[in-house]
Amino acid sequence: MRLKKLKLSSFISKEWLNHFGKTLKYSLYVIFHPFDGFWDLTHEKRGSVGAANFLVFLFLLLNILKLQFTSFLVSNINLNRINMWVEIASVIAPILLWCVSNWGFTTLMDGKGRLKEVYMGTAYALTPMIIIGYPNMILSNFLTIEEITFYTFFDTLGMIWFVALVLAAMMMIHDYSLSKTVFSSILTLVGMAVIVFILVVFFSLISDGIAYFVSLYQEIQFRFY
User: Fold this and answer.
1) N or C: which terminal CB in the chain sees fewer CB atoms within 10 Å?
2) Number of C-alpha atoms within 13 angstroms, CB side, residue 202?
3) Which of 125, 102, 124, 134 has its CA nearest to residue 115?
4) Distance between CA 62 and CA 79 in Å, rounded?
5) Model confidence band, residue 225 (pLDDT cutoffs 50, 70, 90)
6) According to the 3-state scheme, what is the secondary structure of the chain?
7) What is the pLDDT of residues 22-59, one digit of tens each?
8) pLDDT of residue 76
9) Average pLDDT, integer, range 132-148
10) How far is CA 108 from CA 102, 115, 145, 187, 198, in A?
11) Global pTM value
């Protein structure tokens, strides 16, 4: 009987790794050349879902690490009260809701982008927040209370950069004008709220239904046993 050690190459080809590296590195080009970058990202296939997933993972990891390693002057959080699953959902859910809602509305508005392309564009737009976020997290531990404005400035810069990139991504992916992109983005936010409301009502009804049958079972058990 011959036993061989499993190698990474058994699951991932060298060609895939090269493609992943190139498409991940392309995110650095996109943030400085958003219009050409997002056009080529989808139309010239210079992006990949694998790289998009990795960027989302880095953003998720950043938000988790910030809970522990951001200075208490910036974020005074009681770690004992943190639910990690809630923290993960608070990052992943908005991204998925945005993609689904945007794709749904733009499909009705002659948008040319597919759901996969909307997801890729949104994930690549996270790059500035990732690049700025990690050093900013570390920097926060060396700042005095008077210097916290530096942390706030860079944090706000990353957010504004992200929003600008998302708008540029939606413009290029759906082949929209700026005004139509802004309008569709507003509709997307409304759609996200509607989806959340429907989900809350749905799970509330399920919870009430389960509670009703449990109480009915307990009543029957009490009466007959």
Assistant:
1) N
2) 6
3) 102
4) 16
5) low
6) CCCCCCCHHHCCCHHHHHHHHHHHHHHHHHCCCHHHHHHHHHHCCCCCHHHHHHHHHHHHHHHHHHHHHCCCCCCCCCHHHCCHHHHHHHHHHHHHHHHHHHHHHHHHCCCCCCHHHHHHHHHHHCHHHHHHHHHHHHHHHHCCHHHHHHHHHHHHHHHHHHHHHHHHHHHHHHCCCHHHHHHHHHHHHHHHHHHHHHHHHHHHHHHHHHHHHHHHHHHHHHHHC
7) 999 999 999 999 999 999 988 888 889 999 999 999 99
8) 73
9) 89
10) 10, 13, 49, 11, 20
11) 0.86
Q: Is the pLDDT of residue 220 over 90?
A: no
Residue 5, pLDDT > 70, answer no
| Amino acid (1-letter code) at residue 102 | N
Q: Are 61 and 88 in contact (CB under 8 A)?
A: no
CA–centroid distance for 209 within its chain:
32
Packing angle, helices 34-43 and 14-30, rounded to 10 = 150
* 165: amino acid identity, one letter: L
Q: What are phi and psi of 198, to 5 degrees?
A: -65, -40
C-alpha to C-alpha distance for 175 and 62, rounded to whole angstroms: 32
State the CB neighbour count (10 A cutoff) for residue 206: 10
- Residues 181, 163: contact at Cβ < 8 Å? no
